[in-house]
Structures
1.
Amino acid sequence: MDKLNKTFYIETYGCQMNTVDSEIVTSILISAGFKLVDDIKEANILLLNTCAIREKAVERVINKMRQHKGFLKSGKLEIAGILGCIPEHTGDELKAKLDFIKLQVGPDKYRTLPQLIKNIYKDRKYHEELDFDIEENYEDVTPYRSEHTNAFISVMRGCNNFCTYCVVPYVRGREKSRTVDSILDEVKNTIAQGITEITLLGQNVNSYNFEGIRFPELLQKVAEIKGMERLKFATSHPKDLTEELIDVIVKNPNISNSFHLPFQAGSNSVLKRMNRGYTIEKYLAKIKMIREKIPNIAITTDIIVGFPGETEDDFQQTVKVLKDTKFDNAFMFIYSERKNTASAKNFKDDVSKEEKSRRQQFISKLQKKIGLVELKKDVGKITEVLIESISKKRDYQYKGRTEQNRIVVFDKIEGYNIGDYAKVKIKKAEGVTLFGEIVE
Ligand code: SAH
Ligand code: SF4
Ligand code: F3S
C-alpha cells in the first residue's frame, strides 16, 4: 500500500483492554507509514477508542467528539473516527448524532484501519468494519508502548459470562485465549525494553484456557521469566477463582500482593438476577481463603448500586459486605441500563435516579473511611516502591506504587530514576495516597 504521509492522534477511554488496543492500533498505523502525534492540532486523523460500559461513558465520547469537531474546519484535521466498544453497541445512534465522523471500527477489525483510511481519502465517504473475528488476537502485533515503567499485556479477549447488566460480551464477542508462546514472547520482549512491571489482562483471566493450559499455570510461567520484577493481573471473576491461583501468588514473591475481585452486590437475589454465578457466602469464603494464605494482601472490588429490583434491604447487605471485608479500595457504579443486555430486556430499571445516587454516595463515604484505616496500617513500614512518574502536584516528588499496588508519594533523591525500585519508609496516609521517604 502506498504511504499516505498522514498524521494521527488517538484518545483512549474505558478499561485497560482499550489501553492495550490503542497501543495495537498505533503500532498497526505506524507500520503502515502513518505518524503518531501527541497534539490534536497536528493531526490529520483523529481516533477515539471508546467504552460503552455505562451511558455516561457514551455521553462523554459524544461531547469530546463535538468539542474536537472544530479542528475539522480550522485545523489540519481531515478524518474523525470512532473505535472500540461503542461502534459495536450503538454505532448507528452514534453516527446519527455525530454525522461528521467518517469511520467506525470494532475491536476485532483494527488491521483494516490503514486500508479504510486510504479508502476514505479516495472516496470521502463513511466506512465501517464491525464484524467479530474469533481468530483475531493480534498475536503478531507488538503494541506501541506509551508507558515506560509498566506494560499491560492481554492474555485473552472477549467474555462469555453474560452478567445480565453488562455489554462486554456484546461489544467484544466471545472469549478467546492467546497462545502461551505469544504471551511469553511478548513478556520477554517487553522486559528486554526495560519495563519490569507487567499486568496480564483479560475480562476474566480465570477462564484463560489455551490447549488445556489454565491461568495459574500461565501465571507461573510468566513469573519465572528472567527480569520479571513485578507481576499483576486483572480481572478475576469470583466464580472461577481457585486456590491453585492463590498458591501461585504465594510461591512467587514477584507477583504483586494485590487482588481485584468484584463482588457487585451483597444480596443473593440481586447476584442471581445479575447472573454472577456465586452466592455472597461463596464470595466471602474465597476472600477468607485468600487472606489466610496471604495475610498482607490488598483486595479491591467493584460494586453496582441500583440494579433493577434492589431494595433497601438488598443494599444494606452490600453495605455489610463492605464493612466486614475492609477492602483497600472499591469502584462503585450506578447501574446503567444497556441496550440488548438481559437485564434491559427482563427487568425494569426501577430504582430512582435519586435513590441510586444516595446509595452510591453512602457507600463511597463509608469506603473512604474503611480504605484509609487500611492504608494507615502501612505507616511506619518500609516497602519496596516502583517509581512510576513525577508527582503531578509537586515536581520535586515522585509517585510510585507499593507491592500492594498502593500509591506512594515521596521526595526525589539523587540516584533514583523513573523505573527504579526504591525502599520507602511510609510516614503518613491521606485519602488513597501514602507519603514517605526513600531510605537507603
Ligand atoms: N470483567 C470485569 C469487569 C468489567 S466492567 C469483571 O467482571 O469483573 C467493570 C465494572 O463495571 C464491573 O465490574 C461492574 O461493576 C461495572 N459495570 C458493568 N456494567 C455496568 C452497568 N451496566 N452499569 C453500571 N456498572 C456496570
Ligand atoms: Fe461483564 Fe461479567 Fe464479563 Fe465482567 S464477567 S466483562 S461484568 S459479562
Ligand atoms: Fe468499556 Fe469496552 Fe472495556 S465497554 S470497560 S472499554 S471492554
Note: The first strand starts at residue 7 and ends at 12.
2.
Amino acid sequence: MSKIPLPSQVRLSSARELAASARPVGESAPTGSGVSSRLVYSSDSSGEFSASVRSPFEMLVQAAKSVQVAHAAAESVEPSRASEPAPSSRAGAPDSLAHPQRVRELQEGFATLSRPIVLIGPMAAGKTYIGSHLARFYGYEFLDADHVIVERYGEVSDIFEIFGEAHFRDLEYRVIKEVLTSPAYRNTVFSLGGGAPMTDAVAQLLKDEQVVYILVDAATVEPRITGNKSRPLLQPDPVTRWQQIFDRRSARYEELAKFTLDARGGRPISEMTAEIQSFIVNSRKDSNEPA
Ligand code: S3P
C-alpha cells in the first residue's frame, strides 16, 4: 500500500485531534464528481498492497467482473495448480464480463442480504492475507483496520510509543465502528488487528456480525513473527509473548466467532478462502429463509 507520508506535525500533535478532522474510513480526498468515491485496497500475488479510487458504480462493475473471472479461472485451472492463488486478473478482464443482469443481482444482494465479513484472530494469523485473497477471488472489497489507522495517524508502533496502547485502542474502536455502521461497507471483507475484539465496545459491535475467526498456533506463526519488530506487543521475545497473549484472548475469539477457519499449518489459500465463502453463502441463505 502506498502510505501517506507522516508530516512532522502529525507526530507531534495529538492523534485525538486528528481523529476529529479525519476523512471517513476508506474515502479519498474529494474527486470533484459529486459522487462518493472510495479508496480501495488490493494486494498483488506478492502480497504488496496498493490503493486506488473507485466510484460506487465502478466497484459494482468490478465486483461483477471478478465473480465471473474467479469462476472462469476456477474452471480452467489445472489440477496441479488448483491450490495456488488465481492470477491477478481483475485489471485484465474484458469489459463484456460485466453483464448488466449480474450487476443488478449484486446490487440487489447488497441492499438486502449483505453485512461485512469481519476477520478476527491473533497477531500474524494471516487475516490480511486471507481477507485480501477472499475479496479478490469472490468479488468483495477489502479493508484492514490497521491500514486505515496507519493511513490516518501513522505507524502502529509509533502510536503505541508516543500515545500509548489505550489511545491506539480508542482509534481502533472508532475506525471499526465507522466501518460497521456504514452501509457503504456491506460487501467488504474487513480484517481487524488481533487485539481489537478485547475492547469490550468492539466486542459489542461484533456480536451480531459475520465474524470469522482465523485460528492458528505458535508453530504456524513462528516464522512470521521471529525477528519482526512491527508488532510492539510481541517484543522482545515474539514467540513466548504471542503464546501468552493468545492464551488470554482465545476465549473471546471463540465467543464472537460465527465461523472458525482452521489455518494451522499453512494451508493453501484457495482452500481456506473457499471454506469462508461457503460459510458466507450458507449464512446468507439462512438469513433469507422465512423463520
Ligand atoms: C495487535 C495486533 C496488530 C496491531 C497492533 C496490536 C494486537 O495487528 O493491531 O500491533 O494487540 O494483537 P495484527 O493482528 O494484524 O498483527
Note: The pocket of shikimate-3-phosphate is lined by residues 123-124, 127, 146, 156, 193-195, 231-233 (CB under 6 Å).
3.
Amino acid sequence: MISEKMKGFVKNSSAIRAMFEEGKKMAAKYGADHVYDFSLGNPNVPAPAEVKDAIIDIVTNEDPVLVHGYMNNSGYEDVRETLAEHLNSLYGTSYGAGNLLMTVGAAGGLNVIFKTLLNPGDEVVTMTPYFGEYRAYAGNFDAKLVEAATDPETFYPDLEDLGAKITGRTKAVIVNSPNNPTGVVYPEQVIRDLAELLERKSAEYGTPIMLISDEPYREIVFDGAEVPWIPSFYRNTIVGSSYSKTLSLPGERIGFLLIPSGIDDFEDVTAACNTANRILGFVNAPSLMQRVAARCCEAKTDVDFYDRNRRLLYESLEEYGYTCVKPEGAFYLWMKSPEEDERAFAAKAKDEEQILVVPGRSFGCAGWVRIAYCVSHETIEGSLPGFRRIAESYGLGR
Ligand code: PLP
C-alpha cells in the first residue's frame, strides 16, 4: 500500500526516536531513576515564566477570532514586525515583517526552504556530523544530501573537502552552529572563510549557492562564545530559527525563516516560501504560539542549568579517560567511542548500565556517540558510576 519512497523513509527512520521509545520501555522495567536516557534533545528546563504569562494574557485579553483565526501564510504581520525589530536590535540590521516567515519549528522552516529551492536531482551539501533529518528533508523533494568532511580535531568545516563536494548541481549548503551533535560553535573566521568559498564557487558555476543557517541553538552558548550572524558575512543566506530549544517549546512547533532582502530573487523566494508553507499543509505556523513568540522574544532559557550539566559530564568523562569535544553551545556532548564500532559501545552502555547514547552514524559519523545532556542534573550524577565502569572495562585512563 505505502509508496516506495515512504518504504525507504520508514526503513531508515530515526534511530534517535527508536531509542527514545526504548528508553521509555526501560524506565517502566527498571524504574525511571535507574535509566540514564541521553537520547533525545528534549529540553528538561521548563519554558520561561513569561511564556505561561503570555499564553494566559493572550487567551484572556486578545480578540479570540484574531488569535485563533487564519492569517497570511507567512504569519501575523505584527508578530513578524516585532521579531524583525528584535533581530535588528541584536545585529544592527534593518529587517521588516517582509523578511520573516513564521514556521512550524525549524523542521517546518527547512522543509519550506527546500521545497522553495530544490528541483529533483539538486544537491544540498552539509558537513558531517549533522542532524540526520536533513537527509529526509532533502529526500522529500527528490534532492540529494551530500556529505562534506569536518576537521577531525575541531569539527569545523573542512573547506577543501567542501569545495570539492560543491558542483554545478549544488543549490545550497546547510550549516548548523551551535552544532547538533558536536556542541561546536563556528567562530567568525570560519564563517568568513566559508563565505569566501561560496562566493568563489557561485561565480565558478555561474549560479548562486544559498547558505542555509539552521540555528535552533543560537542562544544556548557557554563561556561567552559568540555566534556570528551569518547574513552579515554572506549575502545569499537564509536563517532558520526555532523556539523549540531556546524557549523549551519543542512540542509547540514554532520557529521562523529570516530571508534578507539582499538575496538573489528575493521576491520570488519569499512568495514561494509563503506558498510552500501553505501547500506543505502547514498553512501557517500555530497562531497562538506566534503571538507568544512575539511577546517572549527577549525571554531567556536557563543556560546555567545546561552549563552545570555540561561541566559535570565533560569533566567526569574526561577524568575517566574518554575523549570528548568540549561543548561550546547547544546541549550535546560528542564523545569518541572507546571501540571502533560505536554501535557496540552504545549497546553495551544500554545493556550493562542502562545508559542511552546515540551512535554517531545517525549523524553520518561512525566511531563517535552523542550524549544529549538536556536532562536533569540527577540523571547526569546517576549515570557517572556507569560511565566509569564502562571506561574501566575498556582500560581507559590507565
Ligand atoms: N535542526 C537541528 C540541528 C536540530 O537539532 C533540530 C531538533 O533537534 C531541528 C533542526 C528541528 O527543530 P524543531 O523542533 O524546531 O523543528
Note: The pocket of pyridoxal-5'-phosphate is lined by residues 41, 105-107, 131, 176, 180, 214, 216, 242, 244, 250, 255 (CB under 6 Å).
